[in-house]
Design brief:
The complex is a heterodimer of chains A (723) and B (100). Chain A has 723 residues and is α/β, with parallel strands linked by helices. Chain A has 32 helices and ten strands. Chain A has four domains: 4-165, P-loop containing nucleotide triphosphate hydrolases (Rossmann fold), CATH 3.40.50; 179-269, Helix Hairpins, CATH 1.10.287.1770; 291-438 and 459-481, no CATH class; 534-715, no CATH class. In chain A, the strands form two sheets. Chain A has a seven-stranded mixed β-sheet with strand order 2-3-4-1-5-6-8, with helices on both faces. Chain A has a two-stranded antiparallel ribbon with strand order 7-9. Chain B has 100 residues and is of the alpha+beta class. Chain B has one domain (7-96): Ferrous iron transport protein A (FeoA) (SH3 type barrels). Chain B has three helices and six strands; from the N terminus they run H-E-E-H-E-E-E-H-E. Chain B has helices at 7-15, 47-52, 86-89, and strands at residues 23-25, 34-40, 60-66, 72-77, 80-85, 92-96. Chain B is globular and about 30 Å long. Chain B starts with 6 loop residues before the first helix and ends with a strand. Classes of the chains: A alpha/beta (723), B alpha+beta (100). Chain A binds chain B through residues 62-63, 65, 67-68, 93-94, 96-97, 100, 125, 214, 245-246, 248-249, 252-253, 256, 279, 282-283, 286-289, 291-292, 379, 382-384, 386-388, 390-391, 396, 487, 489-497, and chain B through 1, 4, 6, 40, 42, 45-54, 56-59, 64-72, 74, 77-85, 88.
């Protein structure tokens, strides 16, 4: 007979829960993401014999209470009705700390199975466990595993099947916290039991008694126990007067005392503990003097890996899209359904292709991040950078996402999940779009050589990036001293021992991100590309103000011109015709309509529409200018100098260097691309914040550019046309 | 790690004498030395969080390193390394153990 069971995986952060999760469900099993505000639970399914198992991987926590967001999520998940079994994964190389959570889980009186994971590390440390003794202590089976190698997984499955047979008559652990504490718990239970409603009836009264004794805010807030305040306070005062200790830490103290008692009985050291290799590595990596330089070297290597090593793959993807385009052009004659053909080539292939081209960078970046994360280096990076980041009211954990932002804001914003302090996380997310991402680079690559002499080009490029960083740091300080004011959360981070990452886990991480990115390209980007195509091409202009056809014929007939002069003249006329057509389209009309608002910052209607197009993806700014000036077809696709040169000539004629600089400044600071906005909405879980962010950045960009442009005009800096 | 001369650790030597002999705050414990937690000052924030990871009276701690530019300390508690902020460590009172 086949049955369905719900099993929750609980354990400390970094104890190998997810590895066990993947071992049990298999990498090819469906893994659903349920995003929360700061953390997410994962659900997977697998078959155990005839039975169907639903396995829920909750965020790692040290304690079953509510002193941080992930503890809240874990607490809620574990106190929901309908859990058949708790699988408690512990890092058996640090048994005392890991069993602390087990003592709390045991009080839920839900059948439990304890997984002593990382038993190879425990063995290396010389730890020996008396498993039968520990089993009777916690009233459940214990299985030893090495998740990273898959050792013990079969034993775990056997034990799980065995436990599931005895769900009705499972053992209840007999945990004692000392005579007076047990008395206080017993006393409170008498009062709690009558107050229990159906809603909480699946949880033992004893569990609530303990939580109330340690003044757990989640439990104290439950309406059932509102009338018990006086009784609880009496018990607490009675206990604490005798022990001279505060309410919040009293139970923690009792639990650790209990565990150290249990450990004395059941855990022994067979040999002297060796100083771990990990500590030796850390003597260098987290060293006060060497740590920082080493960190910068590693960051540099990461960037080099992301951008240099991915280059051949990028070229491959470009070639692939060009090939597809060629195929379509060859087999779809321009006469049949010309609009659809153009939509497919100029809208879909250019739009989506322009984004998919970054896939190798994304994959390589996340490969590097996953490697650094899995080895344990990321925790050290946060440690060494913390001092510098605090000067800007951020913290060490904000640094890595900010650096990733130079690559692409979207994964960088996802990477902020590792920041526990909600205030710091929100601040980091909100300032992240100011880090100039890779997609903004094509804009600078087009404009800098157009307006600045070779000797200033590198400086201007650097200046743009530096302006972004400076604004981000100042914005962080402002946000932290206004909207996100208050004492930061207590900083507490574990530095896990260095481990050799498994290829599987790194590749999985990379795969997840890659799939996510492609989904974005296939949905948002595709949609926007089609919309922009329509806006750029419709309504179509049928009758023109000037008769360009006749003009061209006249040029062609003019024998006084050389062939080259003729071609140039024809192209000039063709450009005028296209410009007139462009003005007639939706983009043109919107640009014309908005032009008065953007004139004070030096933008004409063309730049205005390009800036609007940049909302879809920043690179669109370049391709949009290219289309509007009807030069350098496909200018957005590659940064070939020669191809972009005619467009630069046009830009030099139309704008001053000051205007050019203002364009870059505006693109840097203004609203990020829609994909970034979408991820901001998802990560902050709020439409309101997304709109506030967009409005705030727009205002920042507008005001800054306005000031720069007007001061520039006043002081006559770069106000002369180069051509 | 031991030859990592931490300026803050040195400054802590004199401050140690303010409390009972042999007692000082965790922030003042020099790199490489160990101590036993005696008590927490009432001003310690997030005491439950610290208690949950094992920083309760009677626990043995080892100062492993100081982060560059101040803020963070790295301590060994119950076989695992934790990084905590110096301001919080200044609220944890410990008894220093002989380096031997």
């Amino acid at each position: 007979m086949s049955r369905k069971y719900r099993i929750v995986l609980a354990g400390n952060p970094n104890c190998g829960k997810t590895t066990i999760f993947n071992c049990l469900t298999g990498a090819r099993q469906h893994v659903g993401n349920y995003p929360g505000v700061t953390v997410e639970s994962k659900t997977g399914e697998f078959m155990l014999g005839e039975d169907e198992i639903e396995l829920i991987d909750i965020p790692g926590v040290y304690s079953l209470s509510s002193s941080s967001p992930e503890e809240g999520v874990a607490f809620e998940e574990l106190t929901k009705p309908g859990i058949d079994l708790i699988m408690n994964v512990i890092d058996s190389s640090i048994p005392q700390r890991s069993l602390y959570l087990s003592t709390q889980l045991a009080e839920l009186h839900i059948p439990m199975l304890i997984v002593f994971n990382m038993s190879d590390e425990a063995k290396r440390k010389g730890l020996k466990f008396n498993i039968p003794k520990l089993q009777s202590y916690f009233g459940c089976s214990i299985v030893q595993t090495v998740g990273s190698r898959g050792d013990g997984i079969d034993k775990l499955k056997t034990a799980l099947a065995e436990s599931l047979l005895h769900l009705e008559d499972h053992d209840v652990p007999k945990l004692t916290y000392g005579a007076d504490v047990d008395d206080a718990i017993h006393e409170l239970v008498q009062w709690i039991e009558p107050a229990m409603t159906d809603r909480v009836h699946h949880i033992p009264a004893r569990f609530f008694a303990i939580k109330l004794l340690e003044k757990d805010t989640c439990v104290m807030r439950l309406p059932e126990f509102q009338n018990l305040d006086a009784i609880i306070d009496a018990q607490i005062t009675h206990l604490y007067a005798r022990h001279a200790i505060t309410a919040e830490t009293f139970m923690a103290d009792c639990r650790y005392a209990m565990i150290s008692g249990a450990c004395r009985d059941a855990i022994s050291f067979t040999q002297e503990r060796r100083r771990e290799i990990s500590d030796k590595i850390d003597a260098v990596v987290t060293n006060q003097w060497v740590g920082l330089p080493l960190f910068f070297v590693i960051m540099y290597l990461m960037f080099w890996f992301t951008f240099t090593c991915a280059a051949p793959m990028t070229a491959g993807i470009e070639w692939m899209f060009a090939w597809i385009q060629g195929l379509i052009e060859r087999f779809w004659s321009p006469d049949a359904q010309p609009v659809l053909r153009s939509l497919l080539i100029d809208g879909v292939i250019h739009g989506v292709g322009g984004v998919v081209v970054f896939l190798p960078n994304i994959l390589f970046l996340f490969l590097a991040i996953a490697f650094l994360e899995d080895t344990g280096y990321m925790a050290r990076a946060a440690f060494v950078m913390d001092g510098i980041m605090r000067k800007f009211d951020l913290q060490g954990k904000s640094f890595v996402p900010l650096v990733l932002g130079f690559g692409c804001n979207v994964p960088a914003i996802m990477a902020t999940r590792s920041i526990e302090s909600e205030r710091d996380r929100r601040t980091t997310i909100l300032v992240l779009p100011l880090m100039s991402c890779g997609a903004r680079l094509p804009i600078y690559v087009l404009l800098v050589p157009a307006f600045f002499a070779v000797k200033y080009q590198a400086f201007i490029m650097f200046l743009i990036y530096a302006i972004g960083v400076a604004f981000a740091m100042v914005a962080a300080r402002i946000l932290k001293s206004t909207l996100f004011k208050g004492d930061g959360e207590v900083y507490l981070m574990e530095l896990p021992p260095y481990r050799v990452p498994t290829a599987k886990s790194i590749l999985l991480h990379m795969w997840d991100r890659g799939v996510m990115y492609l989904k974005k390209a296939g949905t948002i980007i595709l949609g926007v590309s089609v919309l922009l195509f329509i806006a750029n091409n419709f309504p179509e202009k049928k009758t023109f103000d000037a008769d360009y056809g006749t003009q061209m014929l006249a040029v062609a007939a003019d024998t006084s011109l050389t062939a080259a002069e003729q071609a140039a003249a024809v192209r000039h006329i063709e450009n005028m015709r296209r410009a007139e057509a462009a003005e007639y389209t939706i983009s043109g009309r919107v640009g014309k309509f908005l032009e008065p608002a953007f004139r004070p910052i030096g933008f004409d209607w063309r730049v205005t529409t390009a800036a609007i197009g940049a909302l879809a993806a920043k690179e669109v700014f370049v391709s949009q200018l290219g289309i509007l000036y009807a030069e350098g077809e496909g200018a957005g696709d590659d940064e070939n100098e020669d191809q972009q040169e005619p467009l630069r000539q046009q830009l030099r004629r139309a704008y001053t260097p000051l205007q050019g600089f203002c364009m870059m400044l505006f693109c840097l600071l203004s609203i990020p691309c829609l994909a970034t906005l979408a991820i901001i909405r998802k990560e902050l879980n709020s439409w309101k914040w997304m709109f506030l962010e967009a409005a705030g950045l727009f205002a920042l960009a507008y005001v800054t550019t306005l000031i720069v442009y007007q001061i520039g005009l006043l002081l006559k800096i770069g106000t002369n046309h180069l051509l | 790690m031991n030859d990592d001369k931490a300026p803050a650790g040195k400054a802590g030597e004199s401050a140690c004498n303010v409390m009972n002999p042999g007692e000082c705050t965790l922030a003042e414990l020099p790199v490489g030395e160990t101590g036993i937690v005696i008590s927490m000052k009432p001003s310690l924030r997030g005491r439950k969080k610290f208690a949950d990871v094992g920083i309760v009276p009677g626990t043995r701690l080892e100062m492993e390193a100081h982060a560059p530019f101040g803020g963070l300390l790295r301590i060994k508690v119950m076989e695992s390394s934790l990084s905590i902020h110096r301001d919080d460590a200044a609220n944890i009172i410990i008894r220093r153990q002989d380096p031997s």
